[in-house]
Design brief:
heterodimer, A: 70 residues, mainly alpha, elongated, disordered N terminus, B: 263 residues, 2 strands
């Protein structure tokens, strides 16, 4: 394929919007899940919250890196 | 009428409107393979989809007319608006899959607004699930065959250009987002839209009928509800097309992502 003549993204960038939402959800799910499992194994209660925040931060990093510079 | 005097209160149609009992009972190895109304409707949609393309392109003419003209514009739409815009010329070999997907989903959704059918096929979980799994398997195999097994998963799970210290944080996110969230959202978006549409339409039409026949002040509101119900049918027609388009374009975007790794 020929990237140089790539036209503007169609559909008003709706695929980008869905990708951003998907990444956010995935971040929270993945690390929230890991935190939840760790909570169960270690008998703690706060790791699920730490995981969710960590996952959201990771997702933000991915999104900004991928779409931030336009 | 005497019926009006002793009618019961209004019962809003709910989720039971999605349950159909088997017309033909069939159990194989403990799996219910019975045929109900939804299965019959699926057969019908498959038949209609196949028949439209078969009749349109059975004896193709250089200057298309009639049905061939219509179906060619459908194929053209998918080719130009979805495949070429999102994947590029490289993606033309996926045109048959994406066109079939679009037409099948559209006719499946269309059942929701067609009189006598009045049921959107894709409001049953199995339909969008199977189609989402097809798209998932397709873009994974495209990625593997284009980039090689090892390269595809390395490019997907370890996005290049990231300090390696962050990989333990990012890899689980990429794993879930690519192989779980993508197919799940693909299926749920279509399913939820169709369930909501069917619920809204059935509530509006049942309520319209109830109010119009209640022979008191409600009858006046019934007229307004009827106008709204007709407008909602038009809206659901729009949603039927839109959701078919969204499902198809996102499948194309995922294929494009598998063809060309991130830089």
């Amino acid at each position: 394929m020929s990237p140089p003549e790539q036209p503007h993204k169609p559909g008003g960038g709706s695929d980008i919007v869905w990708s951003i939402i998907g990444t956010l959800v995935a971040g929270v799910l993945a690390w929230g899940g890991i935190g939840w499992l760790l909570d169960r194994w270690l008998g703690t209660e706060y790791l699920v919250a730490v995981g969710i925040l960590l996952g959201a931060a990771g997702a933000f990093y991915l999104i900004i890196r991928r779409y931030g510079s336009g | 009428m005497t019926v009006l005097a002793q009618r019961e209160g209004f019962h809003a149609p709910g989720i039971e409107g999605f349950e159909w009992s088997n017309i033909v009972d069939l159990h194989l190895f403990g799996i219910d393979l019975g045929i109900n109304r939804v299965v019959l409707q699926m057969f019908l949609v498959v038949l209609v989809t196949w028949l439209l393309f078969f009749l349109a392109f059975r004896t193709p003419k250089l200057v298309p007319a009639g049905l061939q003209n219509v179906m060619e514009s459908v194929v053209d739409f998918i080719r130009n608006q979805i495949v070429l815009e999102n994947i590029g010329p490289d993606g033309l070999r996926f045109l048959p899959y994406l066109t079939t997907l679009f037409v099948f989903i559209f006719f499946g959704n269309l059942g929701g607004v067609l009189p006598l059918i009045s049921f959107p096929l894709n409001s049953r979980m199995a339909m969008p699930t199977v189609m989402a799994i097809c798209s998932l398997l397709l873009f994974i195999s495209v990625g593997i065959s284009r980039q090689g097994f090892f390269h595809y998963f390395r490019n997907t799970l370890f996005p290049p250009g990231v300090p390696w210290l962050i990989y333990p944080l990012l890899t689980p996110i990429e794993l879930i987002s690519t192989f779980v969230v993508r197919p799940v959202t693909l299926a749920i978006r279509l399913l939820a839209n169709m369930i909501a549409g069917h619920l809204i339409l059935s509530v509006f039409f049942v309520a319209t009928g109830y109010m119009l026949t209640s022979a008191n002040i409600s009858t006046l509101f019934g007229v307004g509800a009827l106008v709204f119900a007709v407008a909602l049918v038009a809206f659901e027609l729009f949603v039927a097309g839109l959701q078919a388009y969204v499902f198809t374009i996102l499948s194309a975007v995922y294929i494009a992502g598998a063809l060309e790794p991130e830089h």
